[in-house]
Amino acid sequence: MPAEPANLMEAIVSLAKRRGFIYPSSEIYGGLNGFFDYGPLGAELKKKIRDCWWNDMVRRRDDIVGLESSIIMHPDVWKASGHVAGFTDPLVDCKVSKQRYRADQLFFAPVVVAGKIIGYVSALESDNIAADLQTAAETLKRKKAVQGTLAPVQSRDMTEAKPEEIPLIPSPATGEPGSLTAPRAFNMMFQTNVGALSDASSVAYLRPETAQGMFVDFKNVVDTTRVKLPFGIAQIGKSFRNEITPRNFIFRSREFEQMEMEYFIHEDADWAKCHEEWIAWCEAWLRSIGLPDSHLSRHAHPKEKLAFYSKGTVDIMFKYPFGVQELWGIAARGNYDLTQHANASGKPQEMFDEATKKKFVPHVIEPAVGVDRIMLAVLCAGYAEEDVPDEKGNVEKRTVLRLSPRIAPVKVAVLPLIKNKEQLVGRAKDLYVKLKRKYAVNYDDGGAIGKRYRRQDEAGTPWCVTIDFETIEKPGDTFTLRERDSMKQRRITETELFALLEEQVY
Ligand code: GAP
Description:
The protein is of the alpha+beta class and 506 residues long. It has helices spanning 8-18, 40-59, 75-80, 83-86, 129-144, 211-216, 218-224, 271-288, 336-345, 371-382, 422-436, 449-459, 469-473, 494-504, and strands spanning 22-24, 36-38, 64-67, 88-93, 100-102, 106-113, 116-124, 156-157, 184-187, 191-193, 203-205, 231-240, 255-265, 296-300, 312-320, 323-334, 351-353, 358-360, 363-370, 383-389, 395-401, 412-416, 441-443, 463-467, 479-483, 489-492. The protein is 30% helix and 29% strand. The strands form 8 sheets. It has a 7-stranded mixed beta sheet with strand order 3-12-13-19-16-15-14. A 5-stranded mixed beta sheet has the order 23-22-24-25-26, sandwiched between helices. Strands 5-4-9 form a 3-stranded antiparallel beta sheet. The longest helix is centred in the N-terminal third of the chain and has 20 residues, at 40-59. The radius of gyration is 27 Å and the shape is globular. The model has no long low-confidence stretch (mean pLDDT 96). Glycyl-adenosine-5'-phosphate (GAP) is lined by residues 209, 211, 241, 243, 252-253, 256, 258, 260, 326-329, 368-370, 372-373.
């Protein structure tokens, strides 16, 4: 039976390091918080996720074209888009420890005993924030030796703290009140300077999203291709956000990769229907790369929390080990972005309606997802530790990554049963070279065959082919095909193997 270890995140971080999926960035210098490197298996897995998305989103559709815009754009882009003024998170500093917190992730509560406030407690966001604060309240009551009934704690986050409460709330770093500042807006864009001068005139930003590239190049695409509404522009690329508290491994980092698509529709089109169609498309796509329905859900943003221009946003949520969190946001953004850029640049961003003979600014539906978040989701959903019998019938533990063949970093491992039999090795190498032309393949001749299977299980390789004595001694030129998930073995010919790959890897 597949089993999740008690601490799934720890197990995944450990596997990711051990097998070369993910390393901390600049590790030999102590790492840099919020930045990661992707090792050989990780780079391949990310590439497969990107390729699947690009193939399904762009190449296999007639209504979507691709784009690669620059990471550093004219700074006015970010003024027009609203990022310079408003791309902020609320920040709280602890003046003593120099720790920084996102105000909406730092919770506090007054401790009320016999109807009187005897002090305040605080805790960082967790799955069990109410219980954490209640425990802290009980400790405070005991420490202050106050008699009477402790009321259940009523938690709020720091954005809701009244000015007179702030000096009374303890810092999570020191446990003492008096050192936390009031929340202030912290802009998350990374700044740089373009050119030889470092002054205000040369300030530029690393993009915090890829989306603005599609808006700024909207007219270029319309004028240089034959797109007709409705149509989309898609892009995959790095984005950068100076997150106050990067956390949960690669879930929230400071450098990450986005896959975004802007789907432009007529101003009179049924945006709600189009929005729903894109949500369903994204869900189906996540299923196609192996994420189970049981881990997926939807969260519709409440109307009062939407930006003024937004018609609706639905997030596809994933059940990560640290809680249910946003994976993919699908927003109906009206024509806000194109209108902003038209006003700021003085260049109209319109299309012509042949039927009404009128110009209009198209509206947009935007599915936006992070590659790194998908990668973490497939690792979490695919990881299992199982008790299985070894060759001698003894029970041993196997760690397996059940990755979909679509995205598995290695599709097939070619294993000669022994490495000192020329005929076996020759046939294995011949097959390996043929497979390599089309697929990511591994050749492994080191150690007992059972050990080699386990190595591939951990890497998420769906199939191993063993070239054995039957291959060279019996007619038919068949190999042993061993399936990762069932561990079942059967004989297969080269033609059948290529047919299997053709069907499952697309
Ligand atoms: N253009 C819209 C936009 O960027 P977003 O919700 O801020 O919307 C879209 O980002 C997606 O990018 C998120 O759903 C998430 O998958 C990913 N993402 C955002 N911030 C991230 C971060 N700090 N680290 C990793 N992925 C992130």
